[in-house]
Amino acid sequence: MDNPKTGKVKKQTPAEKGKQKRDYWVPKIFLMSIIISAMFSLVSSNVLEGAGYFIAFSLLAAFILIGILFDIVGVSVTVADERPFHSMAAHGEKSAACALRLIRNAEKVSNVCNDVVGDIAGIVSGSTAAVIVSKLCSAFRLDSVMLSLFISALVSGLTIGGKAIGKKIAINNSTQVVHTAARVLHVIRRK
Q1: Which helix (H) or strand (E) holds 108?
Q2: pLDDT tens digits for range 100-123
Q3: CB atoms within 10 A of CB 32
Q4: CB environment 135-148: b (16+ within 10 A), e (fewer)
Q5: pTM, whole model, 2 decimals?
Q6: Which CA distances in Å does 48 have to 51, 131, 142?
Q7: What is the DSSP letter of 82?
Q8: Burial class of residue 60, CB neighbours in 10 A (0-12, 13-18, 19+)
Q9: How many C-beta atoms surround the C-beta of residue 102 within 10 A?
């Protein structure tokens, strides 16, 4: 009972319901960040343990690419228009409903893609680069400071440059990117 005099329960307005849902978002995204970070770190440490240089550099490239791809999806969802997906849904495209959900939840999707996955990929790629530097220095007795500077600069350049190119792709091709992401999610959900 919200009103003790009348005994009536006050109905929540849509804004109050939305605020209630947002209140759960922060703890949810916090836990999601911890889980994704743990998974990335676990994969990185398991793969790098005893791995050769080719595998180590491939893993580093994969983390950089994951960060760039998720950044593209996050930006695309924020700039995409719903109209093409309404048309696709009317023509029976099964992934169109998923695309519409992505666009309607652009704030959360962007947060997960850009901030959670993108930032974690950046952090893990940095730690992967540090492991590679350590391996190279111990194997070839190289100057660790110079090698560390070179590899960290290279990783930063590839990440930032890749994301800059990705943002242009995301803005110019947002419908195709969102449609592709929705198709992938639709397939995953069906399985």
Answers
A1: helix 106-110
A2: 999 999 999 999 999 999 999 999
A3: 15
A4: ebbeeeeeeeeebb
A5: 0.84
A6: 5, 8, 20
A7: S
A8: buried
A9: 24
